[in-house]
Amino acid sequence: MHEPAMSGWLLMSLCTASGAYCLVRMRSCSGTAREAAGGEALMGFGMAAMALSAAVPAPPSWGWVVFAVVFGCAAAHSAWPARRSAHHLHHLVGCLAMVYMAVAMLPGGRGPAAPEHSGAGVPLLTGVLLVYFAGYVLRSGVRLIPLPSPAGGPLGAAVTWGARPELALACRLSMGMAMLAMLLAL
Known about the structure:
The chain is built from six helices and no strands. The protein has helices spanning 5-28, 32-55, 61-79, 86-105, 124-143, 165-185. Helix 2 (32-55) runs parallel beside helix 4 (86-105). The model is unreliable at 112-118 (pLDDT under 50).
């Protein structure tokens, strides 16, 4: 994540806004939807912090360890529910991708903080994650295409900000694009 500081600030803003909306969504739902919104808020704020850390001149190396531990714990938390839910599986892949990026950014890792970093190609795991998140972004983007509502459907029904499914999907899309940008910059 060694792109210019401006892209780090833009990623940080996008992910912070997504995380904040997920917190708003948590207030208007319950059960598994509330848990999913909480996981997405964690991802949004964590990605924002990681993007900000990459934008500042010299983030401390212990910060990357903190990111790896936090997202490792989040991955462990979502591992059991991932066996029965595609959404939890996506959270697991996202958390593991964040752990991977944090470890790569450590001095001595394979990221740009390492003195032996060379542009010798994309590591296999980075390539697999890029393909996964590119597919996720395309799938989420297609799901945002509006469909005609059935006759007699609730066209003008009042829906709170936290219960708007298209905004939740737009949040997921923006976080997927941010993950792609972070992986490309790795």
